[in-house]
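pls ignore typos typing on phone
DOR + seq
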Amino acid sequence: MTVTGSVLIRNVRPYGEGEPLDVAVTDGVIAAVGAVPDTHVADDEIDGRGGVLLPGLVDLHTHLREPGREDTETVESGSRAAARGGFTAVFAMANTAPVADNATITDHVWRLGREVGLVDVHPVGAVTVGLAGEQLAEMGMMADGAAGVRLFSDDGKCVHDPVIMKRALEYATGLGVLISQHSEDPRLTQGAVAHDGPTAARLGLAGWPRAAEESIVARDALLARDAGARIHVAHASTAGTVELIRWARGQGIDITAEVTPHHLLLDDSRLATYDGVNRVNPPLREESDTRALRAALAEGVVDCVATDHAPHAAQEKCCEFSQARPGMLGLETALSVVAETMVTAGLLDWRGVARVMSERPAQIVGLDDQGRPLTAGEPANLTIVDPDATWTVRDDALASRSQNTPYREMTLPALVTATVLRGRVTARRAANGGAWQ
Ligand code: DOR
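k done
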């Protein structure tokens, strides 16, 4: 990591638009955008090589596994993966061991993130004690702590009891914080390991019906309506969820939603090999769902992309499909998967990518220093992308401590070449898509 007082970024195209120009950064802030004279002296210089300049990416849904499963990821390894993926802020989910259901843990994770300094790590607080779904966690204490927790979730588990969820929404409204719900009716998904459709039936895998997700999305929308609360839908995975969000917005309900890169690109036809790397919650759905999710993201019905980066050890994935832990790596491949599914497909331009991967997520959680315009006076949280490069994913070349990427050996478009956090270069590749420096 290069710590500098000033950085000069040469030859980049903000949002991939217009002619290449230069960006001068001083003391963590964008000082000038335009043609910077050759005489300009900076502590560090990045050659953008005509690439796309974006506001640094923001991930509302990351599992960093610390404390508890440092064998699979740490705040440090996850932060490095995030920086290499173009992220300048990530929200670290609460399903650690112990669970982040109190301010001691959330402040600890926040401090670890600050020490590493590669990305802003915002801990997510649990909604219920131990993620058990029975008793509300001390949300106020976590919100008031050093970490200033603003996002709460029992992710990995659904807050399924409607009375608890109602109370949580009321409490969150009073605190001015947001609840992100993992929408899964646990009675409908008992033993389920795959999307409930023809593929699971053929393979003999227990099915997770779309209704398990959609019934909770609908219920929570109604609970949010009555509480005058905001609600965020984590990892939307079905066409029906899209229609429910559209309906709820039409009713004036304050609902937002994210989609993962894997639910945009992959479908359950991949399950035929019984490879545990494809097991994830919610499960990979059908092609019709991926199409609906892409269209919803382009239209803005689904607000943003969130990775659900979920590292798991080899022994937890390389086993019988039904025994494999659900979850996939995502931080280092997210931008490329969005490029493939949305940009190459003509559904979004790079300004649209900035919207769904930086601006909207920052707005949803009220970060005022991320997802900002690329103009003078704004914090220098930046990502540079080579839009014309392609690369082949190698699981052993990732910064993550785990290797459970479903994109192994896949060739994807668009390469993050540098990431800048408040004027500090947190990731940088050698020329021509070379190694990380
Ligand atoms: O696939 C998943 N893995 N979905 C979740 O909601 C949790 C996550 C994990 O923690 O591994």
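The longest strand covers residues 44-55. The chain has a mean pLDDT of 97. more later
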